[in-house]
Design brief:
Number of helices: 4
Strand order of the largest sheet: 2-1-3-4
CATH architecture: 3-Layer(aba) Sandwich
Strand content: 15-25%
CATH topology: Glutaredoxin
Largest sheet: 4 strands, mixed
Distance between the termini: 23 Å
Number of strands: 4
CATH superfamily: Glutaredoxin
Structural class: alpha+beta
Number of domains: 1
Radius of gyration: 14 Å
Helix content: 25-40%
CATH class: Alpha Beta
Oligomer: single chain
Length: 119
């Protein structure tokens, strides 16, 4: 499985944001130890989507920074608008499944800004 993350790393960060990003970096390292290939892309350095990826191209071209970061799992947009927790990353990667009681609650991904591609 491949998880690609498109993010814009140009904005200045507060101390809280830096701490959150540090935790996220740790979570991605953990994900890699679980056999998931993780690739990160900085759209500030290369502001285009891979050829043929219309959903991602629309996000990059039309919606701008509020939709970032954007997470693709095996080439399909899975999440966007905020950095997910380790549990959310594991769910996206198929490492854990949501239980019925989890499904009854509002999804934790509801925190994310919803982009046009994924709801």
């Amino acid at each position: 499985m491949i998880m690609e993350i498109y993010e814009s790393a140009t904005a200045p960060e507060s101390a809280d944001a830096k701490a959150m990003r540090s935790q996220f970096d740790s979570d991605l390292a953990w994900l890699s130890t679980q056999g998931i290939v993780v690739r990160r892309h900085d759209v500030a350095l290369k502001p285009s989507a891979p050829d043929g990826d219309e959903a991602l191209a629309a996000i990059i071209g039309n919606e701008g920074d509020p939709s970032f970061p954007v997470f693709l799992v095996d080439g399909k947009v899975a999440y966007c608008g905020s950095y997910p927790t380790r549990q959310e990353l594991a769910e996206m990667a198929g490492l854990i499944r949501r239980t019925r009681s989890d499904a009854d609650r509002a999804p934790s991904s509801a925190r994310a800004v919803r982009c046009s591609c994924c709801g």
